[in-house]
Amino acid sequence: MKTKINIELLPCLPNHKESYFSLIAENAFDPSSITKFASDLKEEGFLGTSKEKKIFTSNNRIIIAYGTDSTNDNLNLSGFRKAIGKVISEAKDQNLSSINVEIYPTQNSDIEYISFVFAETVTLALYSFEHIYSNQIFPQKRPICVEEIKLFIQNTNQNLESLSKNISNGIDRGQSLNFARYLSDLPSNQLRPKDLSLLTKEKFTQLKFTNSTILDKIELEKQGFGGIIAVGKGSIYEPHLAIFDYNPPSAKDTIVLIGKGVTFDTGGYSIKSKKHHNEMKYDMCGAANVFSAAYIAAKEEFPVRIVCMLACVENTIGDYAQRPSDVYKAWNGKLVDVYNTDAEGRLILADVIAFAASFSPKIIIDIATLTGGASQIASNMAGILCVNNDSLISDVKKAGALAGEKFINLEILPEATENIKGTVSDYTNMNNKWNDGAATMHAAAFLKEFVPQNVDWIHMDIASMSYNGRNNGYLSSEGANSFGSRTIVNLLKKYSELN
Ligand SMILES: [Zn+2]
Asked: How many whole angstroms separate alpha carbon 429 and alpha carbon 85?
């Protein structure tokens, strides 16, 4: 799973004719920087406008030219990441284990950030899930992987030592994100709820200023986590709640992060159809992705307290499993009528969102593969965002744009809150009009009822984004992609600076 990569930064590239890639970003040709490509680019009709990309070969060198963002004249991050993805896929196709890359940034580009993004993106692009698959049985079929990159950033006076540090930070970030993908790609018989809590704990406890607690079924029952118990009752693989607390001495505020960790979702007695059932091992992507965000923030010692909680559970059928129409008591004492056992994510998250009050957080962020309805809203173009304070919307959008992750805001209408009022209890877990419409909004409306008073809340539904998505150039369309992690890291960065 661990990506082995060595990126060496050089003052200039060795004169090497093969495996040579050049990445060029220009919106106005700067003759001093790209003289040697100017005629090639002209011949290709490359103007350097936003969204433009050209790939061509010249003197045994693959040139990937992409336009800059014309609105701010800065590096076009998304174009840059895609171009890096293209370099890696070309190198894989050609079975190259060692490549040379030149980067020609624009004059205004932040070279420090470019070197970081380059390393992070290369590490993401090189991920592949090889845990138990046939590579071990047929090693001769295993493709050669890029292990060494010699990198030259043109037109920079920055010292190599400082840029090299950014490169090693970028590789670290990429590997932390790949850990989320690895957990998500594991089949459910290799990742039970307890495994998810223990594998993440093992990693988290290696960091400074951390404290980890795992609540098992007995403890969850004792402490009144009725939703987690209700969902996990049918499985012999018992539910666990992992609580990871990073509390550096410099912290003033607390941010709570919560992830849905359903290691397999059969739907329970409201059982799913055969279609896509094999994908239900991915119902824990929220937990994996939010863990990676917390891990990155703790590893890089952000000056804010972060409490990251993963609700790990399997939703299945069996003698002890909950039935549609069962009523349970949630952590905050509210009664919930379970209309549909396949709407289980909100039951486990609601318990943890209410429990978050114990940490007096300034803000709660939850992330989950929550509703199939998310794909009807934005397909695989964007994650769905819901908030209880509109000022948070632009924070998430900006953080997402920087990460190359899109979110669209879904307003929770007051009618949706009415629709989840129970008849025999306080709430139902579905629209009580027994109408399947607006599933994503009703799920969010349910969760919002459990948010502690006066606490900001960000909810991300990533059901249509977290696995088997579009190939965006550097994240494969197969398997998990850690969607949302980088946006959350950017949010944590912003909020920790305000701390
Ligand atoms: Zn479900």
From this structure: 41
